[in-house]
Each structure stands twice: as C-alpha cells, then as structure tokens.
Description:
Blueprint: H1 4-16, H2 18-44, H3 51-60, H4 62-104
Helix pairs in contact: 1-4, 2-3, 2-4
Amino acid sequence: MISDSDIDKALDYLRDTATEAAQATANRQHLENTKNVMKAMVMSEHLSEPVNAQERYAFADTRYKNHLEGLKVAIFEDEKFSNMRAAAEAKIRAWQTMKATLRAEGKAYN
Length: 110
C-alpha cells in the first residue's frame, strides 16, 4: 500500500525539483540548438577546404567534442529528472486509484 506520507514525499519532490528540472531541460535544448552553431564556427575556420573536409575538421575539433560531452551530461540530467518526476507522478496516480477503489468499496481509509 502507498501511504499518505509517501504521497506527501512525492508531491514535495515534484514541487522542490520543478526549477531544477526546467533548468535541465533548458540546458539540454540550448546545447542541442547550438551544436550546429559550434560545427559551423569550426567549419568557417577552414573555408579554403571542400565542405566535406570542413566537416571532418569540425567533427575532430576539441571544441566540438567538448560540446558533445556537455550535451551528453545535459541529456542525462534532463532524462534523470524526467524519469524521477514521472515515477513520482505514477505513485500519486496509483494512490488516487487506490483511494477511489476504497471509497467505491465503502471502506474507511486514512
């Protein structure tokens, strides 16, 4: 059984992590949106080369690799918050269903 205390903790978690979860999503989206900017910046340093060579330089560049590592971290943080918040929401939904079932059966609960 899911206790009222468990639900209070789940609600507290959702409230307390809302800003951090939003920031994690914003970080992820920013890094995803700037990935091509980073690539273009490196490519622009090699304009005398054919486009495929410019891309090779960009993909091999330490700045681009670091950007991808940052994106990896941002994706992890965003997904972690998303999964943890989904678990808290699922617990709350299960508790609501349990309480509704008890009411329908005419049983007392607390």
